[in-house]
Amino acid sequence: MIRVSSGRVLLTVILTPLVFLSDASRLVSETSLSDCDEKSSREVAALVVGADQRETDAAVGALRHMINTYVKDFCDCDDITNMLRSMRHLVALTKAPSAASEVRAYESPYPTNRRDVLLVWINPTCPHCRNVADLIHDYQHASSDAPAAVFRMLPSTHDEVSQYTALNLQVLEFREPAQFVPRLYELLHTPPSDIQSVDARMKDLFAYPALELPESDGARKCLLQASQSFPSEMGAPVVVFRGRILSPNKEGGLLFDPLRNVTNLEATVHAIRVADGRRSQ
Question: Could you tell me the pTM of the whole model?
Fold first, then answer.
């Protein structure tokens, strides 16, 4: 249902049953979100229909919240429909290298009691990376169903302070995993200005500079591996969930950014979970 008031399109979001073909062999009837018009309703239906009713219900709720946020931002029905189409492309098509989608033996998802994992490549001196880390932190605190996070270092190739900070953090993850994420957040919010200040910031944890510690060789190898995981033009931050790179997508006609806010990230996570459940049928 659409109502117009003072030049603004207002959406009344209602739940209606949609019937459509599942695999050309049977009809599947699901309760889906109807917003704006039939086109956007079908886009939502394509995102939420899955085998597990719990996952479907969670996805419907997350998408409703996301759509309402766009309505408050004065997006019209066509904009919402096109963003949903772009979201579908992201969920279906954006794939990370398989080697970049697995948690390694030395990595500890944070927090530990979550059922799946966001893999996050971070430049520890990058303001945008700080914002993404904060976004993930806020999502995890807002929802117990949010994935854990595994942070990996992807420093700038042209910044020695970024590289040295990343090396220190990688050594720290090897030596004291419980200290890794708290110190990463601390450095993201107050980045060091030079190499000497990195050593000063780490002296409470290391008896010697990181380059003199035995874990430094392994840390260098990890940083090299991270730099080779993605195309050279793709710098941090990079966020991967269940094999999908959570980067902006505009294949549907209007850009959808899964990292725009907590609402978009949560809706994207649920849509991917539903898609994976559908594929496992």
Answer: 0.84
